[in-house]
Write a structure and sequence with these properties.
Order of helices and strands: HHHHHHH
Number of domains: 1
Strand content: under 5%
Structural class: mainly alpha
Distance between the termini: 65 Å
Largest sheet: none
Helix content: over 70%
Radius of gyration: 27 Å
Number of helices: 7
Length: 169
């Protein structure tokens, strides 16, 4: 309840301040122009994000930037639906790509501070993904492993010793 009262006070103060500065008629023009511009931007950026998501799916890459942009565009559109000057300005800022990129970076960094595993996931998601299988040699001899590798179609690769190396003093 206190949040709603704070929202109402901020919006009323903003509209009254703008009306006293540029006049009541121009304030209505600004509010109407903001709504029209917001609807146009929301549609354009929504379509752009949908295309970027489809392209990421087609390229089989993780679409964390596109998904975050989609959420921010949706939040911007929602803020435009809420009546008020301050929410319209905030919604318009979320719909503009440069300010949305700034908000996205801050959101990602805040989330990574709360959950450090997200940083690792983001870093790994930005590189190429290689499907593979670990072949446990166990007691198998080299010929059996080589035949398995050749049968599975591996063209080239490198065997990495999984045991940690210790540095000598």
């Amino acid at each position: 309840m206190p949040f709603v009262l704070l929202y109402l006070v901020v919006e009323i103060v903003a509209v009254v301040a703008l009306a006293s500065w540029i006049g009541f008629g121009w304030t209505l023009v600004v509010l109407l122009a903001g709504a029209v511009l917001g609807i146009w931007l929301a549609r354009r950026e929504g379509l752009r994000v949908a295309r970027a998501l489809a392209e990421a799916a087609r390229d089989r890459r993780v679409a964390h930037v596109e998904t975050t942009d989609g959420m921010l565009v949706a939040a911007g559109g929602l803020l435009l639906l809420v009546p008020g000057l301050v929410t319209d300005v905030a919604g318009l800022l979320l719909l503009l790509p440069p300010s949305r990129a700034l908000v996205r970076r801050r959101m990602v960094h805040a989330a990574e501070r709360r959950a450090p595993g997200l940083r690792t996931a983001r870093i790994h998601a930005e590189g190429p993904v290689i499907d593979g299988e670990v072949v446990d040699r166990g007691g198998a001899d080299r010929d059996v492993v080589d035949r398995l590798v050749l049968d599975r179609g591996v063209v080239e690769g490198e065997v990495v010793d999984p045991t940690p190396r210790t540095s000598e003093p």
